Amino acid sequence: MKLRRLRIEGYKNLRSCDIEFSQSPLINAVIGSNGSGKSNLIEAIIQILVGCYFKKVPPFDFRFEFEAQNRVIVLHGEGRRTSVTVDGYRMPMDHFARRLRDGPAQVFYPELTLVYYSGECRRVQQLVARYRRHFQKLTQQPETDRFRPLFVQSSNEQSHLILLALFAHGHKCLLDHLKLEEVVDVTIVLRSPYGFDPTLHEPKLWNTAGAIRRIVAALDAASTTQDASGIFDIPPESAMEGGLLRRHPSKPIIRSYRLTEKGLYAFARRLELAGENVYLALETLRARGMLKSVSFLLRGRSAEEPFPFDQLSEGEKQLVAVIGALTLTNQKDNLVLLDEPDTHLNPQWSWDYPSMLTEAFAAEQLPGSTVLMTTHNPVTISGMTREQVLLAHTQNAEGSLFSRPHRNPRGQGVANLLCSSEFFGLPSSLDKETQKLLDERLAISIKPELTPEDKVRLKTLNEQLEILPGVSERDPEYVAFLRQRHATNQL
User: Fold this and answer.
1) Its Gene Ontology biological processes (predicted)?
2) For residue range 213-228, what is the model confidence (pLDDT) as tens digits?
């Protein structure tokens, strides 16, 4: 998917919001202060796409133009009425929404819209949960049970499932970043599905059908099984927001599947033959209330002994939740909506982050994909061009406006981005105390004549600042000051 234009009128603080995406880069970053509307922009896009899927008009006026699967789509909502244009021709909303349910044959939306929020957004959770419930019903028939979801929401809570799937399918790039070498002692514990009656139904595959039966059969064939209790307990979808199922009327049967390294690969290969993967398969089981627990140990990071998943840092889990999920779910045509996906990343990973996002796509997927992300991190945007960055401005009663910067972030350096009024607007890249010393020294130095007290104080300041390594070389304001003083002394 490539974004062309987005106009929003009257959604939260998005008033008279009109953004053109003329260059269509892969990665687009939105920066701005808290409350400037960055997250609302992503939320509004999800409301438009999911709303039109269900023929439910979003509660605000909008015009959304994009390219999806080589077609130009315009969704226009005004006064609680929505119109659809495909390649310049009007299309009835009923027909448009019906065709979105055609699985691999649908051609009006991106094949995947991946959503990630670092925090909690209940409205987005409700929208995606509604789609997930619908998708479950849609794929209950044999002719539809191989459909892949159009909307997937990843979260840090799913990262252990995603990490297991990365090992299973041999995606080494991200694992190398994390310095993880091997997964061992894999155990997946399932509970029997709602409605299963051991006195009436066959016990091995629990009387399941379609995609669920394929998943359980693949797991059964690749593992050894026995009754057990879970270790890494996962709440069934019925206990979560937008739950899909009622709880079991009686105590379910619990079964443990233990996978060796070869067994995990065999499980993944069998799912791949059916067009599925371990991550989406386990999420499908969770949605049906069947996934009780997942446990495993990891090797790597120079540790002598295997260690549990919980020992990974929040930054590592966040990388897995975003880059890993994208690696496992991407299609030829993608829209990726990320709300502050770099909040827990160290500076090195922030610096590498745009490259990591790019590497998550295959070369043939890049022309038809767009990543729209919000961030507060100057390191993340430090290598981007102006066409990749949107600045969110709070305009008081007028709402938020979005514009492109006048200069490229690329080449300016992180310190300059922090201090630039156009980007982050810090008064200095230095800490407050050091900046106070510099300001005081500057105030004394520009005096036409120095008193004895001034000279003593200036000497003290120079000595204090001399202790701080790198001040004169690294602070842009101080460099400019020194150059000005030097030029003055030469006159």
Assistant:
1) DNA synthesis involved in DNA repair; double-strand break repair
2) 999 999 999 998 665 4
